[in-house]
Design brief:
alpha+beta
């Protein structure tokens, strides 16, 4: 029999693997840019950097990098639903939370 992996839900932010939980270093290096977390995440993604999910100070890898909702919700507070294996989440749903 196959083990069924249960979907779980977390709250946090979609970020990038270069900045992880904090965009402060990047923003300090480019103070004139006045970038938001979203701007920074999307700028970092233009390279070989991957999307990550940050929840309660922990950074999780995201398996399905091609999911369009990742770009839509980059830098936003979100409720993310998916399946976790180790420290990697396969995302099935992302809902933006109120500001």
């Amino acid at each position: 029999a196959f083990a069924q992996t249960a979907k779980e839900t977390w709250t946090g932010k979609i970020s990038d693997s270069m900045c992880g939980g904090s965009h402060a270093k990047m923003m300090a290096e480019h103070p004139s840019a006045k970038m938001t977390d979203r701007d920074c995440t999307l700028a970092c993604r233009k390279g070989e950097v991957k999307y990550v999910f940050v929840s309660n100070g922990k950074v999780y890898n995201i398996e399905n990098q091609e999911l369009a909702l990742l770009q839509v919700h980059a830098g936003h507070p979100v409720r993310l639903t998916g399946e976790m294996k180790g420290d990697t989440i396969t995302v099935s749903q992302i809902v933006m939370l109120g500001k």
